[in-house]
């Protein structure tokens, strides 16, 4: 089909590898795909996806940001992808502006959440909000389409005129490859060995996976673990994820070490399917998300979920149906919710089953890839494809 864009590039940061399943699904739809990120490209090489590395710093750094823009401009000018698509806070602001200067016809960006600036009421966060709004308006003006992962963020951008009328869209997450998650799940014998290795035999396991920053609710998780373990025996809390270098937002290693009696910190792990398989309950007390990937992965693995009643979290959990919602920054409320589900196996099983159904029906990789296929068509000014056309096109590509 000659209307399909030749090349789609995803531009992100140190975790751009999480876009690989979506890139593969887009490749199955006939696109050539590539990625630009700040991590090493080993994961992309395994899938024969062209990968280009650039310099990106999370913190505000004028010299580093100039270097970032220059590197992106050189890449875009040299390879001329048809569409560049920026993910994460900085790439989503920088990518469309640089792409417009490099004369890239299709410019798309996804708002993966509004992070610290909107989850905190600190003087610094309040000071940065007007600057954030100004920068986002500039990025929206350069982008053909700005994509949101939840309704709250979309409404905020519209209310503050941070996005052009008719130039936005809503896609719930980046797609969960449910089949791959299930495929990676260990068998019962393997799971028993891992339980023994981690000291989790005969234990109810509560799991949290996140970067160790304050806004993910790590401190509340640590405090809630202590409360629960003081009231109930046979419970083990595990925490997985990298420590952060984000200044005041970083959770100090001492805070985790102090709660080692109640929480086992496992560091960075690649066996997420395994860890979710041995869990009885998944918890993410984040202050705000775009659309939480780990909540969706845990839901896909049919776990009951406890999270906060905040944007990007409440979109995954229907309170009392597939999990429980608690107020952010409230360790006592979090502990109460955890205790409620730990004491009821029937409730955990029912909620976990519903989580699997909810994720499969609303957040599947297929659904997200189909949505982005049409968004890329729109960004290039081409007619979008109806669902029956998408199905027909996928069949034609698979046949070839």
Automatic annotation (TrEMBL):
Glycosyltransferase subfamily 4-like N-terminal domain ranges (all copies): 20-141
Statement: the UniProt record of this protein carries the keyword Metal-binding: no
Name used for this protein in its record: Glycosyl transferase family 1
Protein's organism: Nostoc minutum NIES-26
Stretch forming the signal peptide: none
Occurrences of domain Glycosyl transferase family (ranges): 194-348
Keywords tagged on the record: Transferase
UniProt keyword Secreted, yes or no: no
GO molecular-function terms, A-Z: glycosyltransferase activity
Domain of life: Bacteria
Gene3D superfamilies: Glycogen Phosphorylase B
């Amino acid at each position: 089909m000659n209307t399909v864009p030749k090349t789609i590039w995803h531009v992100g940061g140190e975790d751009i590898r999480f876009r690989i399943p979506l890139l593969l699904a887009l490749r199955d739809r006939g696109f050539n795909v590539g990625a630009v990120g700040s991590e090493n490209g080993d994961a992309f090489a395994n899938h024969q996806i062209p990968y280009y590395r650039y310099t990106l710093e999370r913190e505000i750094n004028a010299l580093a940001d100039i270097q970032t823009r220059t590197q992106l401009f050189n890449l875009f000018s040299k390879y001329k992808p048809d569409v560049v698509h920026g993910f994460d806070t900085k790439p989503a602001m920088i990518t469309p502006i640089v792409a417009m200067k490099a004369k890239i016809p299709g410019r798309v960006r996804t708002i993966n959440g509004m992070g610290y600036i909107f989850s905190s009421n600190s003087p610094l966060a309040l000071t940065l909000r007007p600057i954030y709004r100004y920068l986002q308006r500039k990025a929206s003006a350069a982008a053909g389409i700005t994509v949101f992962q939840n309704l709250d963020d979309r409404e905020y951008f519209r209310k503050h005129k941070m996005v052009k009328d008719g130039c936005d869209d809503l896609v719930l997450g980046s797609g969960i490859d449910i089949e791959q998650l299930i495929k990676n799940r260990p068998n019962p014998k393997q799971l028993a060995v891992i339980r023994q290795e981690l000291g989790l035999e005969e234990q109810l396991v509560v799991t949290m996976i996140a970067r160790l920053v304050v806004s993910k609710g790590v401190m509340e998780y640590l405090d809630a673990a202590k409360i629960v373990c003081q009231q109930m025996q046979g419970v083990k809390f595990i925490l997985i994820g990298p420590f952060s270098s984000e200044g005041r937002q970083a959770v100090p290693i001492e805070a985790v070490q102090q709660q080692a009696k109640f929480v086992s910190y496992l560091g960075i792990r690649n066996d997420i399917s395994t860890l979710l398989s041995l869990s009885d309950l998944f918890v993410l007390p984040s202050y705000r998300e775009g659309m939480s990937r780990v909540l969706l992965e845990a839901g896909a693995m049919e776990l009951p979920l406890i999270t906060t009643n905040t944007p990007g979290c409440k979109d995954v959990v229907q309170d009392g149906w597939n999990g429980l919602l608690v107020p952010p920054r409230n360790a006592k409320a979090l502990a109460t919710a955890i205790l409620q589900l730990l004491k009821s196996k029937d409730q955990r099983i029912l909620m976990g089953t519903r989580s699997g159904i909810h994720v499969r029906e609303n957040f599947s990789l297929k659904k997200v890839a189909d949505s982005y296929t049409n968004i890329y068509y729109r960004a290039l000014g081409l007619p979008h494809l109806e669902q029956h056309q998408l199905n027909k096109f996928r069949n034609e590509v698979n046949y070839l």
